[in-house]
Known about the structure:
The protein has helices spanning about 15-25, 80-85, 100-105, 115-140, 155-165, 180-185, and strands at about 5-10, 30, 45, 55-60, 85-95, 110, 145-150, 170-175, 190-195, 205, 230, 235, 255-260, 275, 280. It has about 280 residues and is α/β, with parallel strands linked by helices. The strands form four sheets. It has a six-stranded parallel sheet, with helices on one face.
Amino acid sequence: MGEKHKILSVGGDMRSVYCAARLATEYDTSILGFDAEDIPHGSGLHICDASKKYDTLLLPVIPLDSDGMIPAENGSIDPEEAALLVDSRAEIFVGRMDARLRDIFPDARFTDYLSREDVCLKNAVPTAEGAVMIALSELPVTLSGLKILIVGMGRIGTALTEILKGFGADVTTAVRNEGGAARARLHGVKSVRTEEIGGEWGLIFNTVPMMIFGGSPHIVAEPPKFAQNTSDRIIGTGSKCNSFASSIVTAARNKITVILSMNIDKTAAMTINVTNNGIGL
């Protein structure tokens, strides 16, 4: 039998730890960017050994932040540091390919695991659950009976719909076309065209890759790791904010929108002021 692969998982959140622990049942697997107490007991997973050369590198869903660093549980990691730990022709598994990686690992072979639909669908569930967790922690009212708008009916929007229906929420989805409207009907919720959004909402989940409602200031990078960035109680999660300040959004207090898109356009698509139960956006 040939020598086992030596796998190094660098950065990410607890999903990376669980994935590495699973790999450790069959391969020589180590992690970088976590503490020893983060490793599941008895998993066989190890903290990175600088004396080894790893032939496989596992990077998180968003491999590099805006500063070109690998986001990790206990601080950012310089990708050049990771490059010193792996073979020059290593196999690199990455969530969303970043062109900057090719400059750091010019001879490596890359595989984008988010190109697999099954992975994207499974990842939508913890993303949606994490977004609901934020809403539950910030809202002064229950989700039951609350008027909620979900912008977008893709993988995450669909997962959110099912979760929020379970809470008894009054869910409407904002869609761009008849396909989205049909999907909303199949999931038993109402729909409205995105350009026709109006009225009052207690909570809005934005899953689309553009800024709406006057410029939502935050993006989600790696749910369900939620390092909350808060401004006027507009709640977002992730590793970076775009150039728009929260002052663009209407100035009422206790405003909540949860942003789940990984790529947000810098041009606001619309401005809207909605209030319900004392919560405005």
